[in-house]
Amino acid sequence: MIPIRCYTCGKPLIQYYDEFKKRVEAGEDPAKVLDDLGIERYCCRRTMLAAVDISKEIIKFSTKVYRW
Amino acid sequence: MPIQMLEETPISIKLLVKGYPLAVLNAIRRAALELCPKMAIDFVIVERNDSTLFNEVLAHRLAMIPLTSDEALDHYAPPEACAECDCRKVETGECTYEGKPCYATLYLDASADGKYKIVYTKDIISSDESIKPVYDNIPIVPLIGNQKVKLTAYARLGRGREHAKWMPATVAVVKPVLKDISVKETLCNEECQRECAEKCKEAFTMKDGKLTIKDGTTLSMVMYCIEYVCEGKGIRPVFEEDTYIFELETDGSLSARRTLKESARAIVQKLEALKRKLEEKAG
Ligand SMILES: [Zn+2]
């Protein structure tokens, strides 16, 4: 899971992540997408650019749950 | 003493302030960061957590979620009132101060039902209508298979000096307004100044044989020049006297206007407390 807020300034960022990821994967320029989303400070921009969500990869290896 | 509004959105505010001392503005700025109260999840009772995130990580993520607290400021007990409370009293709902409750309760109960699923803030159920996550689509925890998360979270008012999750402001800045630059003739003669103007056409221009700044030149542009090009020898920025730009941006839990008001109120409260203490000591 990626962090909820920017490490440096504390602006909540994660709510933009899904849209950011979708648009960048579709081939848009990340700088333009960040501008569109209203993320202007460079602390927030680097948090957003550098965030990689690996939860989907590691969740496969989670312990199996046995109900009791 | 006029205060001019330059920009305003619900979560950010930009003011041009004239005639107030820097100390006052800086006090308000710092109060916005560490004294203005807001709502945040304080502790979590986890009933079931099968997810890949540990309880502590989960609790931390929950605490980071901004909660709407505009109304809560009036209806909930002040942060200091809750210092003596313990968890047992909170669970039974006994925790009150002068008729006001200390804690708001939020419930989260989610299960994956056999497939990959992300639990969002919209799945949180709040006991109080006025306290809910500001954003609906903040992912909290991923689930898979028959994993399940069930927890009760307790939110209370707090101040930023206690923990950063209670900081309503993300940006609080006071900065001076650039008026002009002064050039030391002995270190930088006209030829040297012309060289400056040629090197940086965006910021500088020559006027009557003297180096001046263009319209729209910012302080950071001039400071870059001073630090890296001229190395502080010749140019120095000149600021407008007693004029400052005050910028405030919040994380959405409080409006920028409310944050400003509450910060000012927090300072007044502090001053009054100091006055009371002094009077007590003096007798
Ligand atoms: Zn930031």
Tally of distinct domains of chain A: 1
**Total of DSSP H or I helical runs spanning 4+ residues of chain A:** 4
Give helix % range of chain B: 25-40%
Q: Strand portion of chain A, in percent? A: under 5%
What ligands does this structure carry? zinc ion
Rg of chain A, rounded, reads: 15 Å
Total beta-strand segments of chain B: 14
Q: Report the top-level CATH class of chain A.
A: Mainly Alpha
CATH architectural group of the largest domain in chain B: Beta Complex
The first-level CATH class of the largest domain in chain B is given as Mainly Beta
How much helix is in the residues of chain A? 40-55%
How does the overall form of chain B come out from the CA principal axes? elongated
End-to-end Cα distance of chain A: 28 Å
Please report the distance between the alpha carbons of the first and last residues of chain B. Answer: 37 Å
CATH superfamily of the largest domain in chain B: DNA-directed RNA polymerase, insert domain
Strand content of chain B: 35-45%
Poorly predicted runs of chain A are none
> Mean pLDDT across all residues of chain A, rounded?
87
**Rg of chain B, please?**
26 Å
Oligomer: heterodimer
The secondary-structure element order of chain B is: EEHEHHHEEEEEEEEHEEHEH
Question: What distinguishing features does this structure have?
Answer:
heterodimer; A: 68 residues; mainly alpha; Arc Repressor Mutant, subunit A; B: 283 residues; alpha+beta; RNA Polymerase Alpha Subunit, Chain A, domain 2; 14 strands; 28% helix; elongated
